[in-house]
Amino acid sequence: MPLKFELCPERHITDCGADCAKFQKSELEHKFNKQALERLYTSKNSWGRTYGDHKRHLEFSHEQYRELQKYAEEVGIFFTASGMDEMAVEFLDEINVPFFKVASFDANNFPYLEKCAKKGRPMVVSSGMQSMETMRRVYQTVKEHNPNFTFLQCTSAYPLDPEDVNLRVLAEYQKEFPDIPIGYSGHETGISISVAAVAMGAKVVERHVTLDKKWKGNDHEASLVPSELTELVRSIRLVERAMGTGIKTMLPCEKACHDKLGKSVVAKVKIPRGTVLTLDMLTVKVAEPMGVAAEDIFQLVGKTVKEDMEEDDSVLPEVVEGYCKKC
């Protein structure tokens, strides 16, 4: 399962086990109109007098993105970003990212989605703030041009309360869109809910990462520190191993327990040779040697025993005429 995380702390997220470092790329004049950039921004999280000043302070340049990409290659991790507007997508395409991430607020931006899809790169689409009806339209729009995409269940709140996570949407997406992988983008605190998403079938997990949850900015409180990221990856890999095949059968690891404590059919009373078996002559116990499997007790009724049996003897397959395990 791919694991992708926003923000790259000084400690390599490769050390934490993640597969991809994902950033956010904006061309601010294409993402915001002039009034949005010029409005005063007095939030405690502000890095400038106006919202535009704030965003310019935070935004990496093209050259910085290329530097980050080169560093990611050196440490052996995939590098990409959410293209927060169409010009940002053009830049990400130019630097040859392995896939496009579509942020939740662009999931209903159909011209943008079509443009991304036509470029042919795999797409990861978050679905915060959207309805199922909208996501059906997203599926149809992207599928027409690009078969390689995934949807992430997401709720756009920072930090996210457990009551608003809505993990059951994962199952609904799996039913609605069975031919694409489904994942989870989490903004909750801690790792338990993200691990639960994997147990429910999520194939991609996205979490934000920070070095200090007390730093200025809404995202930090909803982010993981490196030690939490390490534990999340460890837990996800453990759950992946535990998911199994879905085929219910006795496994080789169970043989020792079965040989020691598995129950089989024994004679409840003394049974002479030639007796036609009835159910009241039989019971089930842990027996030595192990006889006919407990689940086959009803198959023995009406069959004839070929040897004398004492009370509490194991009923062995070879002493019952016409018994066949596979019948």
UniProtKB/TrEMBL annotation:
Keyword set includes Transferase: yes
Reaction(s) this enzyme catalyzes, per UniProt: aldehydo-N-acetyl-D-mannosamine 6-phosphate + phosphoenolpyruvate + H2O = N-acetylneuraminate 9-phosphate + phosphate
One cellular component (GO) term of this entry: extracellular region
SUPFAM superfamilies xref list: AFP III-like domain, Aldolase
Residue ranges of the TM segments: none
EC number(s) recorded for this UniProt protein: 2.5.1.57
Family (UniProt): Belongs to the type-III AFP family.
Protein name: N-acetylneuraminate-9-phosphate synthase
Organism, as annotated: Pogonophryne albipinna
